[in-house]
Specification:
By secondary structure, the protein is of the alpha/beta class. It has one domain: 3-Layer(aba) Sandwich (Rossmann fold), CATH 3.40.50.150. The protein contains 6 helices and 7 strands; from the N terminus they run ααβαβαββαβαββ. Strands 3-2-1-4-5-7-6 form a 7-stranded mixed β-sheet, sandwiched between helices. The longest helix has 14 residues. The radius of gyration is 16 Å and the shape is globular. The two termini are 25 Å apart. Bound molecules: S-adenosylmethionine (SAM). S-adenosylmethionine binds next to β2.
Length: 193
């Protein structure tokens, strides 16, 4: 499968060219987990970058969080932060497509849009594989196109729905009313199980 080389992402971080990095956890994701009672649920955050969502979830009391990124430096930095602050998060440097463990919940935050559009079906298939039978994929997807060549690669609900329905029996995209200000109106909330 054709994909962007890990060095592509490594250089972006090394050169501090990370416009996707909002510097804090995405509001819709935090609000979703504020309403989740099962703090022992196993949660995966793939393409985590600086892993703000993981920090927020750890602060909410979730005890079984795994973050994955393909850039070693990003995972090393986050692991050091975890040790320093005593956050109970497993940080793994790996290619998402090679993961084998299964999870109760997987969180999407600017990972889908970072992959080549030709990888989208593989993404959906892999998500289904990594989720337990009752598991849920939640998060935000862009519902817009971008002028410049990606990443990020945009898209629309009309494209996403048939794609996710290939592997998920319940697919819900709803207007995201609690997006961060710069992304308001540009993303949708997704829940697939
Ligand atoms: C656009 S960034 C988003 C980072 C983070 N989610 C955020 O919102 O700040 C995409 C991230 O996915 C990582 N990534 C790209 N391809 C990957 C892959 N195949 N497996 C794991 N991580 C990957 C990149 O290194 C990068 O950190």
């Amino acid at each position: 499968m054709e994909q962007l080389a890990p060095t592509f992402w490594q250089q972006k971080y090394a050169n501090a060219e990370t416009p996707w990095d909002i510097g804090y956890a995405s509001t819709p994701i935090v609000q979703y987990f504020q309403n989740m009672d099962n703090k022992e649920a196993s949660i995966l955050i793939p393409g985590c970058g600086n892993a703000y969502e993981a920090k927020a979830l750890a602060a909410l009391g979730f005890t079984n969080i795994t973050v994955v990124d393909i850039v070693p430096e990003v995972i090393e930095k986050f692991s050091a932060e975890c040790s320093q602050h005593g956050w109970n998060v497993k940080a793994v440097c790996a290619d998402f497509f090679t993961l084998t463990q299964t999870f109760d919940c997987i969180v999407e935050q600017t990972f889908f849009c970072a992959l080549l559009p030709t990888q989208r079906l593989s993404y959906v298939q892999k998500m289904r594989q990594l989720l337990r039978s009752y598991g849920v994929l939640v998060g935000v997807l862009f519902n817009r196109e971008f002028d410049k060549a990606g990443p990020p690669f945009g898209g629309s609900v009309a494209e996403y729905e048939p794609l996710f329905k290939t592997y998920f029996s319940s697919v819900q995209f709803s207007p995201c009313t609690n997006s961060i200000k710069p992304r308001m109106g540009a993303e949708v909330w997704m829940e697939c199980s």
